[in-house]
């Protein structure tokens, strides 16, 4: 989870390969209306996100027991709660870091529908993991391999995804 440009896709694909489970990019679950709205520099609202989150939740539920990794913003607690309703065992890795780094990353992505102008709205929307949520916060400045190493070391030592803040 994290704002656009935090590295969710790159890290998620890396983690999926390392765990030998499928990876899905949540961007692929957006409908044409959502993509058009974001391409125009208009932030999505909760109504826009609901069908998208349900589709991601269905993918997670379909991969329960077999494993899977999804790169998804999941910026609000309510969004994560919806994903947990679909797949109760889901845990989150929050890729967090400096806004300027994220803004540069988003501005340098050729052909992506998410403009750098929406980075600030993503940070305004972001609700960090709460102590009762299963998940970890990692520094988005680390390389995807280092992030995967850190995550796997944390989950291996605790047998599962730790509570937020651990």
From TrEMBL:
<keyword id="KW-0067">ATP-binding</keyword>
<dbReference type="GO" id="GO:0005737">
    <property type="term" value="C:cytoplasm"/>
</dbReference>
<protein>
    <recommendedName>
        <fullName>Gluconokinase</fullName>
        <ecNumber>2.7.1.12</ecNumber>
    </recommendedName>
</protein>
<keyword id="KW-0418">Kinase</keyword>
<keyword id="KW-0808">Transferase</keyword>
<keyword id="KW-0547">Nucleotide-binding</keyword>
<keyword id="KW-0311">Gluconate utilization</keyword>
<dbReference type="InterPro" id="IPR031322">
    <property type="entry name" value="Shikimate/glucono_kinase"/>
</dbReference>
<comment type="pathway">
    <text>Carbohydrate acid metabolism.</text>
</comment>
<dbReference type="GO" id="GO:0005524">
    <property type="term" value="F:ATP binding"/>
</dbReference>
<comment type="similarity">
    <text>Belongs to the gluconokinase GntK/GntV family.</text>
</comment>
<dbReference type="Pfam" id="PF01202">
    <property type="entry name" value="SKI"/>
</dbReference>
<dbReference type="InterPro" id="IPR006001">
    <property type="entry name" value="Therm_gnt_kin"/>
</dbReference>
<dbReference type="InterPro" id="IPR027417">
    <property type="entry name" value="P-loop_NTPase"/>
</dbReference>
<dbReference type="GO" id="GO:0046316">
    <property type="term" value="F:gluconokinase activity"/>
</dbReference>
<dbReference type="GO" id="GO:0019521">
    <property type="term" value="P:D-gluconate metabolic process"/>
</dbReference>
């Amino acid at each position: 989870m994290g704002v656009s440009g935090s590295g969710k896709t790159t890290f998620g694909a890396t983690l999926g390969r390392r765990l030998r489970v499928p990876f899905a990019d949540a961007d692929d679950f957006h409908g044409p209306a959502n993509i058009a709205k974001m391409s125009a520099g208009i932030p999505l609202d909760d109504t826009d996100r609901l069908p998208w989150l349900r589709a991601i939740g269905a993918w997670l539920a379909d991969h329960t027991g077999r494993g899977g990794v999804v790169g998804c913003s999941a910026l609000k607690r309510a969004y994560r709660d919806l994903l947990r309703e679909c797949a109760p065992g889901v845990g989150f890795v929050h890729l967090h870091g400096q806004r300027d780094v994220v803004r540069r990353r988003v501005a340098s992505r050729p052909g992506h529908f998410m403009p750098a102008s929406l980075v600030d709205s993503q940070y305004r929307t972001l609700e960090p993991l709460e102590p009762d949520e299963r998940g970890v916060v990692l520094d988005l400045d680390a390389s995807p391999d280092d992030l995967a190493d850190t995550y796997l070391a944390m989950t291996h030592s605790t047998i599962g995804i730790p509570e937020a803040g651990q």
